[in-house]
């Protein structure tokens, strides 16, 4: 997020616009935690994950009174345009605020989940995938050495982008993703059958599985215990958790943050409101903010086909000649 924040401040300075930041997101907006940001304040922050203006979840913001209060705080600070960096929750909040405030609102997609419609990528996603891939590579060493099954649980709330991309980047044998579970929920018997068939075909036991959070009751730990206890499969769980949200941001995220931050300021200058800045291909696009959560951002069907079918060691299609 820092790369986007820096870009907003530098672009605003370029166009001679003053920037006031509200610390701690909507919570800080309600409490008027405002601070003027100048280029000097955002020096050397883009190499750090997270956000120097801090963030917070704030249930209260969902009420009408909170939106009215936020509107008064913005007016008291003479704010004409608000840039909201976040995911679908933050954008729902932005839309909610727009019902009670007359200023411009521009969204910048910042979430590791990549689950927003209208943009190829969201800030944080590339970094999270890098971290998950790195962990999977490391787990593979023990899986290989000890012929073990590993279950690595990754984040994504209700979306399988981190799961699919990290599984593909690290050559995992199996993925349990929300999108796949919706079509055909995996049973433990089918999973065990897959593990055993892969081990037979390969003649070795190294099997690494990527499990998206909330896709198995009790998560990776419960699934590993079940595999050991009921099927005598040596299996270990690994929960990556919030590790995926930290560390040095990947170059792709820094560059995306830069592009989007500048685009957000330019959208303000063009008079736009209630849009999110997105990137499609090489192009900056402005996406109606309600579309970002009302429309679906699907997993790339070709990546899914490659990883789930073509790279599945035991799934073969008919020869056609
Ligand atoms: N339906 C909503 N109406 C108003 N504000 C909301 C709504 N949903 C979320 N928010 C606000 O946005 C904040 C961030 O949303 P959350 O879902 O936690 O994260 P993200 O922006 O990463 O999706 C919430 O803590 C809340 O203050
Ligand atoms: O620690 P919390 O607040 O429960 O958040 C965990 C959730 O946040 C996420 O990391 C997404 O957060 P961001 O949208 O802020 O990147 C989800 O993948 C995960 O379910």
List the helices and strands and how they pair.
Elements: H1 2-14, E1 19-22, H2 25-30, E2 34-37, H3 64-76, E3 81-86, H4 88-98, E4 104-109, H5 125-146, E5 149-154, H6 161-170, E6 174-176, H7 178-183, H8 188-202, E7 207-212, H9 219-231, E8 235-239, H10 251-269, E9 275-280, E10 283-288, H11 291-294, H12 301-310
Parallel strand pairs: 3-4, 4-9, 5-7, 5-8, 6-7
Antiparallel strand pairs: 1-2, 9-10
Helix pairs in contact: 1-10, 5-6
Adenosine-5'-diphosphate binds at residues 26, 57-58, 61-62, 86-90, 92-93, 96, 111.
CATH topology of the largest domain: Rossmann fold
Distinct bound molecules: adenosine-5'-diphosphate, 1,6-di-O-phosphono-beta-D-fructofuranose
Quaternary structure classification: single chain
- Return the CATH architecture of the largest domain: 3-Layer(aba) Sandwich
State the domain count: 2
């Amino acid at each position: 997020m820092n790369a986007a924040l820096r870009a907003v401040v530098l672009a605003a300075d370029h166009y001679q616009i003053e920037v006031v930041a509200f610390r701690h997101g909507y919570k800080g907006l309600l409490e008027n935690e405002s601070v003027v940001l100048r280029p000097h304040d955002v020096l050397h922050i883009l190499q750090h994950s997270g956000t120097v203006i801090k963030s917070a979840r704030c249930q209260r913001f969902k009420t009408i009174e909170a939106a009215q209060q936020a509107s008064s705080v913005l007016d008291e600070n003479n704010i004409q345009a608000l840039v909201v960096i976040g995911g679908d929750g933050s954008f729902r909040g932005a839309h909610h605020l727009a019902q009670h405030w007359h200023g411009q609102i521009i969204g910048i997609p910042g979430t590791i989940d990549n689950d927003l419609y209208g943009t190829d990528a969201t800030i944080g996603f590339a970094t999270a995938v890098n971290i998950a891939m790195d962990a999977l590579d490391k787990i593979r060493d023990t899986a290989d050495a000890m012929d073990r099954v590993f279950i690595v649980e990754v984040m994504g709330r209700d979306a399988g982008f981190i799961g699919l991309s990290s599984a593909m980047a690290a050559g995992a044998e199996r993925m349990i993703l929300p999108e796949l579970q919706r079509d055909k929920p995996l049973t433990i018997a089918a999973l065990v059958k897959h593990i055993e068939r892969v081990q037979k075909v390969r003649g070795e036991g190294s099997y690494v599985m990527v499990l998206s959070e909330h896709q198995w009751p009790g998560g990776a730990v419960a699934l590993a215990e079940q595999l050991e206890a009921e099927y005598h499969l040596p299996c270990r769980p690994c929960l990556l958790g919030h590790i995926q949200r930290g560390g040095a941001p990947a170059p792709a995220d820094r560059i995306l943050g830069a592009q989007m931050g500048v685009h957000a300021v330019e959208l303000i200058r063009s008079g736009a409101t209630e849009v999110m800045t997105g990137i499609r291909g090489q192009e900056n696009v402005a996406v109606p903010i309600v579309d970002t959560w009302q429309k679906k951002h699907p997993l790339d069907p070709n990546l899914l086909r490659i990883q789930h079918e073509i790279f599945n060691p035991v799934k073969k299609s008919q020869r056609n000649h």
